[in-house]
Amino acid sequence: MFETVIAVRSTAQQMDNTISEWMADSAATPARFQILAQLWAAKGRGVAQKDIATAMGVTRATVSGLMGALERDGMITSTVADNDRRSCLATLTRKGEAVVEKAIETNKGRLRAVYTALSPDELTALRTLLERFRQVFSCGAGKRDRKP
Asked: CA 44 to CA 47: how far, in whole Å?
């Protein structure tokens, strides 16, 4: 079990590092690209800074600094959430969208090269297993009851 956990975590980290490095050329740093990509995936829906911080595994202060720079560069806009005045929602501008889409287009060849190492059946099996793992971990399966 532990060998599997280590293999999955180290693979995920290697993938994250490599893809972030590939994509960072267009956004200046992997962290900036990670924020832009998360906003791009939201398809125009505002994303709370606290959710971005959680997804990145960093503090809100770190995200706040990165977001400020992205906003100054014209890649994102921030607005106060209607339902919680303490929460800021970020969305991509057209410039930010163009940066993400250019990074994706630029790196399609690299991604294709990685994926050709696996057959279509292997890719399907991998996605299925990863999705099952994600679901199990998101439900907190295996948590032990803790007594206060």
From this structure: 9
